[in-house]
Amino acid sequence: MDISRLKGFREFLPDEMEARRRVFEVMRQTALSFGFGEVDMPSLERLDLFRVKSGEEIVEQTFSFVDKGGREVTLIPELTPALARIVAHRKDLQKPVRWFSIPKIWRYEEPQSGRLREFYQFNADIFGSSSIYADAEVIALAMEILHRLGLAGKFQMRISDRYMMEAILRELGDVDVDRAFRAIDKIGRADEGWIQNELISAGIPDPDEFMGFISSHGGQDVLDDIEAAYPSTRPRCERLRDLMSLLDAYGFREHVVDLSIVRGLAYYTGVVFEAHDAKGEFRAILGGGRYDTVVKLFGGEDTPAVGFGMGDAVLELLMRREGVWPEERFSPDVFVASAGAREYAIEVAMKLRREGFRVEMDLSGKGLSKQLRYASRRGIPFVVIVGDREMEKGVAVLRDMAAGTQVEVPLKDLPALLRGRLP
User: Fold this and answer.
1) Which residue ranges does the chain devote to CATH 3.30.930.10?
2) Cβ(144)–Cβ(162) under 8 Å?
3) Are 88 and 82 in contact (CB under 8 A)?
4) CB of 213 within 8 A of CB of 229?
5) CATH 3.40.50.800-classified regions of the chain
6) Is 368 in contact with 339 (CB distance < 8 Å)?
7) Which residues of the chain have pLDDT under 70?
8) CB of 423 within 8 A of CB of 376?
9) What CA–CA distance (Å, rounded) separates 122 from 124?
10) What is the C-alpha separation between 43 and 211, in angstroms, rounded?
11) H or E element, residue 277
């Protein structure tokens, strides 16, 4: 019997999960500070939900099957369709809706560095605003999260506009826009010869010149060049200028216009963006954009929307490289050791737990010296020692394991003393 872990899946023990929890908490608190509310969706959905929104391309990447009721279902490969379904059918929602979530996502792809078959993904979306302010707010949230995770200056937000790229492609002649987008989206990830052949097949007359044009990165100067070469892009260039100015107002400078960013899925409309490792070592850290037509696909009213997703796999690689991944160590704050008076030890442990401390206690009836050795091996910084004498006096002995010192303290004062000594 083979019971080994499946390829592309991970398992986390407490030390590893503690680091991940801290990263997720930074994400959560940042989103809350931007006024986003947390939501959660089913992990299993009807497969048609993704056919409607994303087409067969993403269906091929699903962990899908027919359930016992004969329904085609899948583990979710993304969250946006479920969110759009809710927005479409909940008429009582006050718009704009600002939601975030950190679900597990499943995609049946070939595992490689930064790409797994099961991963966590932070999502943030705004429904109900077509304003460029909504685009800026979502991108600023993404950049603020990366800053709070210690990655300021270590990434670059690359921004483009699919409508602008469509205008450019149409000025080139009779171009198959969808095919051209699929080829552009593979830049940096597929063979250059294949990309060039795809661009030719899409109807682009001079792929070398075109590739050179879209490879330039920058700010207002790049937009000026685009507008001069393709006058029909003026409205979209103006929108991007406004977006760049807004991001400057948020205090972010790590952003550029990059025409090679088109995002692979066809439902994107208007602004699209990706955050990339500044050294170019990893895949995109996050990606998103505007998808104004999706809610209507599920029977809702025309509802503009913009959002992004950020998986934890590439993010972890980048944070580890930069030395900002949290310490992988789970330890209680306190160990309650008993030398008799077990009921009193339980009372002390529960008092500390209800004050918000992480508290472990002996469950095996070991002697006091063995309990202290156990706490030391576990790296628990403080031990609270109680026995019959302490119970009679209503006190406890607080031992600092690093310093090797201890002090007797009234039980009522123990939480405040611990709080002052813990980092």
Assistant:
1) 1-154+278-328
2) no
3) no
4) yes
5) 334-421
6) yes
7) 53-57, 264-265
8) no
9) 7
10) 40
11) strand 271-277
Give dist(CA 31, CA 26) in Å, integer. 9
The CA distances from residue 194 to 169, 184, 190, in Å, are 19, 11, 7
All residues at 6 or more sequence positions from 270 whose CB lies less than 8 Å from its CB, including other chains: 135, 161, 162, 163, 236, 239, 289, 290, 292
Q: Measured on CA atoms in the order 180, 182, 184, 186, is the torsion positive or negative?
A: negative
Among residues 345, 353, 410, the alpha carbon closest in space to that of 371 is found at 345
CATH code linked to domain 334-421: 3.40.50.800
CA distance 84 to 48: 14
Contact 393, 412 (CB under 8 A): no
DSSP 184-236: HHTTTTS-HHHHHHHHHHHT-S-HHHHHHHHT-EESHHHHHHHHHH-GGGHHH
Check if the beta carbon of residue 331 is closer than 8 Å to that of residue 382: no
Give, in order, the Cα–Cα distances in Å from 402 to each of 14, 254, 406, 421.
22, 43, 11, 12
Backbone dihedral angles phi then psi of residue 124, each to the nearest 5 degrees: -140, 135
CATH number of 1-154+278-328: 3.30.930.10
The answer to whether 257 and 240 have CB atoms below 8 angstroms apart is yes
- CA distance linking residue 184 with residue 190, whole number of Å: 10
DSSP 8-state secondary structure symbol assigned to residue 105? E
Collapsing DSSP to helix, strand or coil, 23 comes out as helix
The C-alpha torsion from 268 through 80 and 190 to 323, rounded to 10°, is 120
For residue 73, the SS3 value is: strand
pLDDT at position 56 is 66
Of 285, 368, 355, the closest CA to residue 321 belongs to: 285
End-to-end, the C-alpha distance of the chain in Å comes to 47
Tokens of 180: 């051209």
Q: How far apart are CA 156 and CA 253, in angstroms?
A: 9
Tell how many helices (H) and how many strands (E) occur in the chain. 17, 18
